Amino acid sequence: MTKADAGDSIRPLRATDVHTWDLQADVVIAGFGVAGATASIEAARAGADVLVLERAGGWGGAAALAGGFIYLGGGTALQKACGFDDTAENMRAFLVAALGPGADEEKIADYCDGSVDHYNWLVEAGVPFKPTFWGEPGYEPPFDDGLMYSGGENAAPFNEIATPAPRGHVPQMSNKRSGEQGGGYMLMKPLAETAAALGVRSEYDIRAQRLVIDDDGRVVGLVATRYGTQVAVRAHRGVVLATGSFAYNDDMMARFAPRLLGRPAASVEEHDGRAIRMAQALGADLAHMDATEVAFFCDPHLFYRGILVNERGQRFVPEDTYSGRVGQLGLLHNDGQVLLIIDEQAYEEGMAGTTATPDLKHQPTWVCETVAELEAEIGLPEGALTTTVDLYNRHAAEGKDPLLHKKSEWVRPIGSPVAGIDLRGLMGGFTLGGLRTDLQSRVLHVDGSAIDGLFAAGRCTSGLSAWGYASGISLGDGSFYGRRAGASAARS
Amino acid sequence: MTKADAGDSIRPLRATDVHTWDLQADVVIAGFGVAGATASIEAARAGADVLVLERAGGWGGAAALAGGFIYLGGGTALQKACGFDDTAENMRAFLVAALGPGADEEKIADYCDGSVDHYNWLVEAGVPFKPTFWGEPGYEPPFDDGLMYSGGENAAPFNEIATPAPRGHVPQMSNKRSGEQGGGYMLMKPLAETAAALGVRSEYDIRAQRLVIDDDGRVVGLVATRYGTQVAVRAHRGVVLATGSFAYNDDMMARFAPRLLGRPAASVEEHDGRAIRMAQALGADLAHMDATEVAFFCDPHLFYRGILVNERGQRFVPEDTYSGRVGQLGLLHNDGQVLLIIDEQAYEEGMAGTTATPDLKHQPTWVCETVAELEAEIGLPEGALTTTVDLYNRHAAEGKDPLLHKKSEWVRPIGSPVAGIDLRGLMGGFTLGGLRTDLQSRVLHVDGSAIDGLFAAGRCTSGLSAWGYASGISLGDGSFYGRRAGASAARS
To answer: What is the ipTM of this complex?
Structure first.
């Protein structure tokens, strides 16, 4: 097609205005990340002819660059092999508490009920998981272990709400330290190969621009651009949107998630929110547009061993929890003002024990003999840090932390010399809000009905999370509801 | 009209499907609160035949029930009469800091530049302001004074960012203590009378249900319901949406502002978000859907004189700031866990000096001889409150508060006996996010263009605020952009 007015608009185009369909398939999927890949597999297995359009030069999306956590539980074979008991109900209790307030409880229950099956599905699709557990503090397993805590399940307050179980399932990496094959790549590679083996077709360097609707408002295709040329793509059964977050759309960030504006991380530049806006132009509804993951870029081996304080010298999080929770509380509730206070011995132990990458091994910003000197050096209000450390030390002498309930194994009085590490600015992330979808991954209109012919999954949708997060939720709900989207579109 | 499929849908109806127009006007306004009233006046003055539809039994909306603050500045006649200097630039600097992060700086600059003119316009429309200043702590002037601080302008950190000036302009109340005529009523009454004198027509007990568009997508009217009957209303020039917030729509609250779910306040049950959804169905864009005002229902005379602490016994806000800021930080960043710690002498002084209504004069929940006893009584972690009070008292002895910079006039060591007042749950409010509009109050499509024939103002739109708030912002931007909406619609 070359119709002039197709232009750059994101408004839906009428099918009657399309003169030629350049590409056709039963199911057309925009985006070849984890949601698009899983959607393509299920659509193909349901008998559909499937075409995936990807604006980058190859499959992968943000997923292929990710550490690779997939949040799964309820008693997966991997959990059992590592000696952990879990149930769907226990997993549900944790997620409702950790991903809220406001988390989609219906979606969480659905996800937990299907989690064991989803794990098996991934294994059958060729995703490798080594049945070993990594129990040290860190962001992800440094070697090829398959299971790790990834959401603060074993830290306060969640360890009192549900029985702790690790649920971060990581695809086995053959050569992690080379940096070439992270867990996300080892997830995406077998999925892309599975899709190809099923006859899924793919086109690259092509980006979805607007949806095409028939006279009844049903989505029957989309218009994409490739090298400046408009390409009309007919979808005989359905369109699946799977193009990722809006972390790189500064205008949307300013309007919906301003605290993360200018701090995109764990996302790719293609995450411009266009799919969200294309669907909004059809009346699609949204959810949790302010919700963001916030990564905290400091080695857990260090911050578990010290105390994290805000600009008033106050502790605000149990330091032995999920680093993303530190990031969220630090950036969203404490204006990004986060300092680590740690004594020399703890720092040395942390550095000795760490398996973190060098960029996370922060050097002390300030070092002093006493906390009072450190407080003055940092420029904190007089007495603010000393009272915090005094209180912490008083209880730490008994191995306790009644203020925030850090586990006793990480509680030890802070001695001398003592350092402050400036962690301001070391927070960034991606967006969790987006299109409102139902359990069948149908995109919902603001009137509550499903928009005919339109499906979505991954971070262009609002998934399990509202305010909170756990590592692996995005690859988790992206792949879970990606499958649903593909299956729904194929039978649409 | 009685076409069956008009039903309860919020999807736009095609004009060709309307058989009979039951009502007609040049400009049709949905909602007769402050935004609708001001829109009606400007539309009528621009020569349009104007019809206002209100679902309640009379004009007023949430505005008529409000305290009546209108946030104005930049050197209004009222500010000058009370001896305060202010400039548009100074006002702008405060608002950008106080209403963010993420506040709409373009809208704020526009609002500040037009603020003096807007004050004069209100006076000319008959809104009375008594040129006296009320300088005591409180929510609103207890008598008929016209000016008061309403956003923490004279408290940290804003008193270092801009020169403090009070900007809460309150219409003079003839009989405030009767409870029948609050400032909001004294704002709405002259506006409604002005509108009536201009020939503005109004219909009550009728609620807007969906928009009507022509073949080009232009909004040419709306469908309303009255006593179960569909009413088709033709707008020859434009439709103005002015139906208020979504604080009473639990589904939207759960998806966008879950921390305020179940806590609506300073809003009316009619605030169901329907206008937002009607416009979304046309592809209208949104902004700051998570933003909420949060009122804090405790007498400032009490909390200025004590310290406010969270569940960890930590202070988090200068107690002498705007109570709404205490509410936002308390509910949104501290999970609503707010306690007031105040000694007997300060409590008695506060009670003696207060002009607050009885419902705000909270009795002590716990009373003890020492802070340590109080801490144990409340159940706070051992040492948490005592260290906070020790630190506060140490500096207070010198009249200082280096931690949060409460002004020295309110800083005094906390003595014995000492009380704790449980303020958990005493926070509630309304939503600040909504339709994205431009400076002419045109509703913007997600493609950035204006939707032909559709205008909006008030709390169904995103106005000046993102995260922060000041009392008077809603009546302020609602009336300011209400006027713009009316003028724009009349010339559309």
So the answer is: 0.95
